[in-house]
Design the sequence.
C-alpha cells in the first residue's frame, strides 16, 4: 500500500480544489468558471449575506476578481448561445451543481418523497388539491416565488390559507413548493435578490438531461463518490461521503467498487487514524503558493474534521453562537497562504460606508504575523475592490489586528 506524508496529502487536496493554478488575471470568462466547476463539482448556497453571498466566494478564492453575473448567468438564465450550466438541488446542502448531474439525484428525490410523506399527507388533508394547484400555477405563471403564488392561489377558493403557526411558521403554499422542489417536480427558474422563483424542470433543464435514462441508486452513489474523490484528491471514506451527504451503507459499497475498479486507490497517510482514498488522477504538486480568503462554505473546508486533520486548523462557524461566547466572530474567513491556513478574519461588508470591515483578525501559532498581516491586507484590498467598496477598516479584536491595520496603512 502506498504511504504518503501529511504534507503530500495536503498538497494533493489543494491541487484537487484548484489552489495550485495561477489566478486568472484580466478578463475572467465562462471558460474559467467551467475550469473551477470541473474541480469542485458543486457550489453551496447560503442565505447569509454579511460579507458576500456564499456562492460567489469560491470562484473569487480561486480566480481572483471576476464579474459575479458570470455565476448568475450560469445558474439562473438560459440563452441559446449561452446555455444554463448549473441547477439548484440538495447536494451537499442547498447547492448549485452541473445540469448534467441532475439525474444522479433522482434517488434523493424519491427518498425525500418517502421520508416526508406523512407531513404532507396532513397538509393535503387540510388543503386538498394544493399540489396540483401549485404545479398548474407555476406552469402558467412561472418563474414565480412562493409569496406571489400564495396570492394567486387558493384564498379565493378557500385553499392554501396561512396557518397561524405551523412548521417554520410558513404558509401551506411554501410547504408545497419545498416538497415539490425536493421531489424534483419543481426547480429554481431564477432568483430575484436571493428569493427563489420556482419553475418546471422542463423549462429549466436541457432536453437531453430530462430524457437521460434512469440511473440506479447504486450507479448514482458510485458516480457521486467518484466525483467526491476527484474534488477531494484524497480523503477518508467519511470525507468523501459528506461531499454529497450520502449514507454510509451506500457510500461504503460504492467506494469498495471504485477501489476494485481501480478508479480510486486506498493509501495510508501519516497521522491519519482512518484509511485514505486517493483518486487515481489526483496530482501531487511539488509546492503550493499564493493566498486566498475562504468562505465558511468553501468546499475545501466545509467538513471541519478534515480541515483540522489536513491543516491542523480548528474551525467552527459561530453565527449561531451568542456574541459574548464567540471566540473569533460572526462570519470568519480562514486565510490560506502558500498551502497553509495561517489566520482568520471576521468580515462584514458595510454598504452604507462603502467599506469592508475586518472586525477581528487572528494569526495561527508559529507563523510570522508581519508576513501574514501584509498578505492578508493585500487580499482584503483585492476583495474590497471586487465588491465595489472603497477600502478596508480593521477592528481591535484579535492578535493580528494591530499588524493588519498597520499593513493596510502602508
Sequence:
Amino acid at each position: 500500500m502506498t504511504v504518503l506524508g501529511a504534507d503530500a496529502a495536503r498538497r494533493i487536496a489543494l491541487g484537487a480544489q484548484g489552489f495550485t493554478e495561477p489566478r486568472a488575471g484580466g478578463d475572467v470568462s465562462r471558460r474559467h468558471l467551467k475550469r473551477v466547476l470541473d474541480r469542485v463539482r458543486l457550489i453551496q448556497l447560503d442565505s447569509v449575506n454579511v460579507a458576500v453571498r456564499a456562492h460567489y466566494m469560491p470562484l473569487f478564492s480561486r480566480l481572483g476578481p471576476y464579474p459575479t453575473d458570470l455565476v448568475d448567468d450560469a445558474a439562473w438564465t438560459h440563452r441559446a448561445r449561452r446555455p444554463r450550466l448549473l441547477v439548484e438541488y440538495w447536494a451537499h446542502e442547498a447547492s448549485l451543481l452541473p445540469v448534467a448531474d441532475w439525474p444522479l439525484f433522482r434517488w434523493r428525490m424519491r427518498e425525500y418523497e418517502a421520508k416526508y410523506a406523512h407531513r404532507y399527507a396532513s397538509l393535503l388533508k387540510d388543503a386538498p388539491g394544493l399540489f396540483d394547484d401549485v404545479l398548474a400555477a407555476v406552469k402558467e405563471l412561472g418563474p414565480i416565488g412562493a409569496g406571489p403564488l400564495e396570492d394567486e392561489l387558493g384564498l379565493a377558493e378557500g385553499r392554501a390559507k396561512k396557518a397561524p403557526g405551523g412548521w417554520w411558521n410558513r404558509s401551506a403554499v411554501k410547504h408545497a413548493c419545498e416538497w415539490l422542489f425536493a421531489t424534483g417536480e419543481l426547480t429554481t427558474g431564477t432568483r430575484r435578490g436571493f428569493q427563489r422563483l420556482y419553475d418546471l424542470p422542463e423549462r429549466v433543464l436541457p432536453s437531453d438531461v430530462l430524457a437521460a435514462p434512469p440511473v440506479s441508486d447504486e450507479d448514482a452513489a458510485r458516480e457521486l463518490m467518484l466525483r467526491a474523490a476527484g474534488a477531494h484528491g484524497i480523503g477518508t471514506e467519511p470525507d468523501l461521503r459528506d461531499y454529497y451527504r450520502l449514507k454510509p451503507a451506500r457510500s461504503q459499497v460504492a467506494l469498495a467498487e471504485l477501489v476494485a475498479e481501480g478508479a480510486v486507490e486506498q493509501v495510508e497517510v501519516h497521522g491519519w487514524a482512518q484509511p485514505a482514498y486517493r483518486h487515481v488522477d489526483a496530482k501531487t504538486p511539488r509546492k503550493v503558493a499564493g493566498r486566498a480568503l475562504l468562505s465558511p462554505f468553501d468546499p475545501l473546508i466545509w467538513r471541519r474534521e478534515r480541515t483540522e486533520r489536513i491543516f491542523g486548523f480548528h474551525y467552527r462557524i459561530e453565527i449561531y453562537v451568542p456574541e459574548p461566547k464567540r471566540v473569533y466572530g460572526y462570519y470568519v474567513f480562514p486565510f490560506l497562504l502558500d498551502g497553509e491556513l495561517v489566520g482568520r478574519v471576521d468580515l462584514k461588508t458595510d454598504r452604507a460606508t462603502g467599506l469592508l470591515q475586518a472586525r477581528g483578525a487572528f494569526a495561527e501559532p508559529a507563523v510570522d504575523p508581519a508576513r501574514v498581516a501584509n498578505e492578508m491586507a493585500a487580499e482584503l484590498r483585492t476583495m474590497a475592490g471586487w465588491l465595489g467598496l472603497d477600502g478596508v477598516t480593521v477592528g481591535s479584536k484579535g492578535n493580528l489586528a494591530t499588524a493588519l491595520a498597520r499593513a493596510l496603512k502602508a
Remarks:
- The CA atoms of residues 311 and 340 lie 7 Å apart.
- The chain has a mean pLDDT of 93.
- The radius of gyration is 23 Å.
- The longest strand covers residues 340-350.
